[in-house]
């Protein structure tokens, strides 16, 4: 019993250490993505809707398998359709993806209880629940980004990377649903998880697959050219693919004009550079794709609209940027209020000046009218006086 207790404590210690480091790594990746991409708001998904399109993981998994197997995949598919009904093939594919979802669900259930805050998740308020969801999102962001390391394996690594990203994306959905007390369980839960994935913008997965496939084909070409010579390998590639034949001839022509022997070129440094390029591309695209899944899951499961629309990058790593943005918004609001107040004061002043002018005009008119009356009275008085003087003069003369 003592040995089991010690082993259990050791496993929990290692697990806690791993989760903490994944959270830190995920926060760093999140900060880098926030600086290089525009913030956006994610829409909530109405889970349970019957009408939704298939997620891109199915399509890209089949494409990666086809590129890995090459012409053999088309041959197998051709003969399989003659023997096996299409409905059976579709149900087999659905069953395989359902098994991946079950694996992701089991993984999330094993990991979540070891998170000390999850034990009291029912008593957490919205902010504490959001903080826990952010930490879990950072763990999965780091895990998804690390999947880009499979680029070292070439074309087989591309298929492994696609399945790993699918597994981590489903794990993220299951865990965030549990954190927000909306767990996805059973067959209906699998359906909802894939429904959420289908509503995330995963269009960049096609770009990533195209780039990784090109790098994988190029690495295979260089591996063969190392032993057979680049000139003969380009010629063989042109014979196999007519679309590539034109470019192969152009490369051969340019090398002849410059005087370069393609078979004498040392390609070892290029062969080492391509896998590193594949890793960088895979990690970069994976971090962007998992961000889409996290954003849609947050918007769907978060109970508060503010928390749902709040960018997933609003964590301690960029609180300064958020505060700066808030301060600038407050300054803009303050300046707008001051301008509005100045305009109102100006209007009031103009109105007051207009009223004063009208009052002055009225007062002036009243004064002028009074002066005219007084003048008329003076004139009448002077006329009467002159009349009286004339009468007295006439009497005296008589």
Structure, described:
- The chain is built from 13 helices and no strands.
- The protein has helices at residues 2-36, 56-69, 71-83, 86-111, 126-146, 155-179, 186-199, 204-228, 230-240, 242-258, 268-301, 305-309, 319-397.
- It is globular.
The count of domains is 1
Gyration radius (Cα, Å) is 41 Å
Strand elements, count? 0
What fraction of the residues are assigned to beta strands by DSSP? under 5%
Helix content: over 70%
Sequence of secondary-structure elements? HHHHHHHHHHHHH
Tell me the overall shape: globular
By helix and strand content, what is the structural category?
mainly alpha
Which consecutive residue ranges, at least 5 long each, have pLDDT under 50? 308-326, 385-389, 391-398
DSSP summary: helix tally: 13
Mean pLDDT: 74
Name the features.
globular, 398 residues, 0% strand, 13 helices, disordered C terminus, mainly alpha
Give a short summary of the structure:
The protein has helices at residues 2-36, 56-69, 71-83, 86-111, 126-146, 155-179, 186-199, 204-228, 230-240, 242-258, 268-301, 305-309, 319-397. With 398 residues, the protein is mostly helical. Helix 6 (155-179) packs across helix 7 (186-199).
Task: Draw up the topology in text.
Layout lengths: L1 H35 L19 H14 L1 H13 L2 H26 L14 H21 L8 H25 L6 H14 L4 H25 L1 H11 L1 H17 L9 H34 L3 H5 L9 H79 L1
């Amino acid at each position: 019993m003592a040995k089991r207790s010690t082993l259990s404590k050791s496993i929990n210690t290692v697990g806690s250490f791993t989760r903490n480091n994944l959270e830190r790594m995920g926060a760093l990746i999140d900060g880098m993505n926030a600086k290089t991409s525009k913030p956006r708001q994610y829409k909530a998904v109405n889970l349970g809707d019957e009408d939704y399109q298939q997620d891109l993981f199915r399509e890209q998994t089949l494409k990666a398998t086809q590129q890995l197997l090459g012409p053999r995949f088309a041959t197998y598919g051709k003969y399989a359709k003659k023997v096996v009904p299409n409905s059976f093939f579709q149900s087999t594919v659905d069953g395989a993806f359902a098994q991946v979802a079950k694996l992701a669900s089991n993984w999330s259930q094993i990991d979540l209880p070891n998170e000390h805050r999850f034990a009291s998740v029912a008593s957490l308020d919205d902010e504490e629940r959001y903080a826990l969801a952010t930490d879990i999102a950072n763990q999965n962001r780091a895990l998804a980004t690390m999947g880009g390391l499979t680029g070292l394996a070439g074309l087989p690594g591309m298929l492994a990377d696609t399945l790993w990203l699918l597994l981590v994306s489903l794990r993220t959905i299951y865990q965030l649903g549990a954190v927000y007390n909306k767990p996805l369980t059973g067959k209906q839960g699998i359906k909802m998880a894939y429904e959420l994935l289908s509503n995330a913008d995963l269009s960049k997965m096609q770009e990533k697959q195209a780039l990784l496939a090109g790098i994988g084909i190029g690495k295979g070409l260089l591996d063969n050219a190392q032993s057979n010579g680049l000139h003969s390998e380009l010629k063989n590639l042109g014979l196999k693919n007519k679309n590539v034949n034109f470019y192969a001839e152009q490369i051969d022509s340019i090398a002849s004009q410059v005087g370069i022997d393609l078979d004498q070129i040392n390609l070892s440094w290029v062969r080492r550079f391509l896998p590193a390029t594949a890793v960088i591309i895979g990690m970069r695209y994976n971090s962007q794709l998992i961000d889409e899944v996290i954003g849609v899951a947050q918007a769907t499961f978060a109970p508060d609209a503010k928390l749902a629309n709040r960018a997933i990058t609003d964590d301690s790593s960029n609180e300064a940027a958020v505060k700066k943005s808030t301060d600038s918004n407050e300054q803009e609001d303050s300046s707008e209020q001051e301008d509005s107040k100045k305009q109102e004061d100006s209007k009031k002043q103009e109105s007051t000046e207009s009223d004063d002018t009208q009052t002055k005009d009225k007062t002036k008119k009243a004064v002028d009218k009074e002066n005219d009356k007084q003048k008329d009275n003076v004139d009448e008085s002077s006329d009467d006086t002159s009349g009286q003087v004339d009468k007295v003069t006439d009497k005296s003369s008589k």
